[in-house]
Specification:
binds D-malate; globular; seven-stranded antiparallel β-sheet; about 475 residues; binds zinc ion; five-stranded antiparallel β-sheet; binds flavin-adenine dinucleotide; Uridine Diphospho-n-acetylenolpyruvylglucosamine Reductase, domain 2
Length: about 475
């Protein structure tokens, strides 16, 4: 078979035949993509680091169509790669070989929104930013926000259990997603699309699909609890002289801001250099080894500003923070947020990016960056650290002029062993996808991985849904 580029063998799925394409064209006229050039963007991931060679993209509009597609593929033994906005960062969103791409791009309808409960029900292909705009008009917001909001789909967010910039305040999707509709590998639809805050009738099946990265079912609709839009939002962007001070600033602001704290993000000076050099953004504060972005969201601007000012006075007076700026108007808030949100984009302009997304005890968060920098020396171009400090989530990124196997060997498994020694997680929020599935054992015991494989075998006995992703392959399937 073609596309034998990876250290993995194509599993014995059927090959796409003319009759298959004809079937899909009859099912969804005008929504079947076959041209090589048109299919190309769906074959390459956002980071441009992995590439599949699918020949077919399907764009269903309804759950019934997704059911028919999967029923057909299941019978024919054709592999399928569910795809949302294709912004995933672990190679899970694109095929490895010739899997059929099932795109949710046209499943973009809002089904209902209840202003009393704040519960939104929508199709899986709604773009996160569109949902945010829709809700803001009604005085509500989405409980999650991330730099990829302009492209990612809510179904993709749920499938990856995306964390993002608001998790500190509104919690994980595991808490805010109230219901899901999912089509299983054999085409049967599972309607768990309830809109109830409380429902203890049996096992909570939706949790199995949240974070399952398209390997257990295709999410077709989502019911999600949305918070009220805060009346007052403030952002402070501050410079700190050491990571110890970043931590102390966090403890102080948590104590002084309490319920209005909605984000606590950090980035190091290298990140600032990258957004300045590659994106021409400018730092609003004096050069510092570390920067933090603090957001408050509340219902009373006078009260919130007073609290924030008291905190800032304390932080400056005690030397925790050496410079800072505050924004209350939407435009300036956006400018400050973009310094943090656009680091990912800046990194792609710096060269080949080795990306790690680690959960650690917060006190040790930056030690990994320091150790990695010392270990790699001149062999890396930049070693940077940023992330959701309030959630104990470090984004460690290493850049080099081009991909090098020896540099990868110097990083892995060192980074995973380091993380496991601290009982951390090797994937805090991005998932395992194609790139990290063989490292799951650093964060999960053997018994847990076995149980996951049993769930997979039960829900998808032929293994047609997103093969080669998330779970490690059995040893005989690997080509070493
Ligand atoms: P895709 O990339 O298309 O797919 C991701 C995975 O989900 C794949 O395995 C795919 O098969 C599966 N999938 C997609 N849709 C479905 C569906 N309907 N049913 C079943 N499976 C499906 N992540 C964070 O957690 N926090 C962040 O702060 C964050 N910031 C980001 C910033 C940038 C600039 C970028 C590029 C990415 C960022 N991400 C972040 C990565 C994150 O995983 C995605 O942005 C997002 O959650 C994926 O949504 P998507 O629609 O693009 O899914
Ligand atoms: C972020 O927090 O910016 C995202 O998770 C993307 C990344 O890790 O680069
Ligand atoms: Zn992140």
């Amino acid at each position: 078979p073609t596309c034998e580029r990876y250290a993995v063998r194509r599993l014995p799925f059927a090959q796409l035949a003319d009759g298959d394409v004809a079937f899909f064209k009859r099912l969804m006229p005008g929504r079947v993509i076959t041209g090589e050039e048109e299919v190309k963007p769906f074959n390459v991931d956002w980071l441009k680091s992995v590439r599949g060679c699918s020949q077919l993209v399907l764009k269903p509009q309804t759950t019934a169509e997704v059911s028919q597609i999967l029923r057909y593929c299941y019978e024919r033994n054709l592999a399928v790669n569910p795809q949302g906005g294709n912004t995933g960062l672990v190679g899970g969103s694109v095929p490895v070989f010739d899997e059929i791409i099932l795109s949710t791009a046209l499943m973009n309808q809002i089904i209902s929104f209840d202003k009393v409960s704040g519960i939104l029900v929508c199709q899986a292909g709604c773009v996160l930013e569109r949902l945010s705009e829709y809700l803001e008009e009604q005085g509500f917001i989405m409980p999650l926000d991330l730099g990829a909001k302009g492209s990612c789909h809510i179904g993709g967010n749920v499938a990856t259990n995306a964390g993002g910039l608001r998790l500190l305040r509104y919690g994980s999707l595991r808490g805010t997603v109230l219901g899901l509709e999912v089509v299983l590998a054999d085409g049967s639809a599972l309607d768990c699309l309830t809109s109830l805050r409380k429902d203890n009738t049996g096992y909570d099946l939706k949790q199995l699909f949240i974070g399952s990265e398209g390997t257990l079912g295709v999410i077709t609709a989502v019911s999600i609890l949305c918070p009220q839009k805060p009346k007052a939002v403030n952002v402070a962007f501050l410079g700190c002289q050491s990571f110890a001070k970043v931590l102390e600033t966090f403890t102080t602001c948590r104590a002084m801001l309490g319920e209005i704290l909605s984000a606590y993000e950090f980035m190091d000076e290298k990140c600032m250099e990258l957004v300045e050099t590659h994106l021409k953004l400018s730092s609003p504060v004096a050069d510092s080894p570390f920067y933090v972005l603090i957001e408050t969201s509340g219902s009373n601007s006078t009260h919130d500003e007073e609290k924030l000012n008291n905190f800032l006075e304390r932080a400056m007076a005690s030397g925790l923070v050496t410079d800072g700026t505050v924004a209350t108007d939407t435009k300036k808030i956006k400018v400050l947020w973009s310094l943090r949100e656009r680091i990912t984009e800046a990194l792609t302009h710096d060269g080949y990016v080795y990306k790690y997304d680690i959960s650690l005890p917060v006190g040790k968060l930056y030690d990994l960056v320091t150790d990695m920098r010392a270990r790699l020396g001149q062999s890396a171009k930049n070693v940077v650290g940023y992330g959701h400090l309030g959630d104990g989530n470090l984004h460690l990124n290493i850049t080099a002029e081009s991909y090098s196997h020896s540099l990868l060997d110097a990083i892995e498994p060192f980074v995973y062993e380091w993380t496991a020694r601290c009982s951390g997680s090797i994937s805090a929020e991005h998932g395992l996808g194609f790139k990290k599935r063989h490292f799951i054992q650093y964060s999960k015991p053997h018994e847990a991985v076995l149980l996951m494989q049993q769930f997979k075998a039960m829900l998808d006995p032929k293994g047609i849904l997103n093969p080669y992703k998330t779970l490690p392959s059995s040893p005989e399937r690997r080509m070493c």
